[in-house]
Give the backbone structure.
Amino acid sequence: QVQLQESGPGLVKPSQTLSLTCTVSGGSISSGSYYWSWIRQPAGKGLEWIGRISTSGSTNYNSSLRSRVTISVDTSKNQFSLNLNSVTAADTAMYYCARWSTMVGTFDPWGQGTLVTVSS
Amino acid sequence: QSALTQPPSASGSPGQSVTISCTGTSSDVGGYNYVSWYQQHPGNAPKLMIYEVSERPSGVPDRFSGSKSGNTASLTVSGLQAEDEADYYCSSYAGSNNFVVFGGGTKLTVL
């Protein structure tokens, strides 16, 4: 059973770059018809899709974040990563990684999430 | 502002049925059958409950059902139980440009 786990700093200073990694276990990141996604959720608010990447490196980003986001994949490590630059307090949120199935259009499974706070 | 519109709250007594709506446009909900619903308990990651409008993943009780009419999708929870109290989010595929959009979430309270 595939599981995802986010990792990275919990505190980032304003104007710096937020960097997170999602490690996939229980299966190969390269198998199946999937995209690997990042989603965030500010405290008490709804879900916001950030972007996705295929194992071939094809990416799509939320238009509202596109200028600041980069998602990459390392198939040898079964990982994919998120970089969000020029962060502000508005980027403070729980960040989730999730697998997107192109067959059924779902995010499943999800990682447990990691809280990132932007503060000096 | 979320792309899909959900009521902020819904409630029902144990054993009753509750329906949560999710309204989009012809570019998302109305244009594709890739509507999903996610349940999120406090402090937990979202959990897939419904996919492709009305399909249930293995392990999801059949008390949960989904439907769609035009640009509005709905999640119905029948025979409400205390453990159903959670936030529910809808999502829809929105094409190759916008990819996916979420609703703002509905807090379901079991009275």
Residues 31 and 82 of chain B are 34 Å apart (CA to CA).
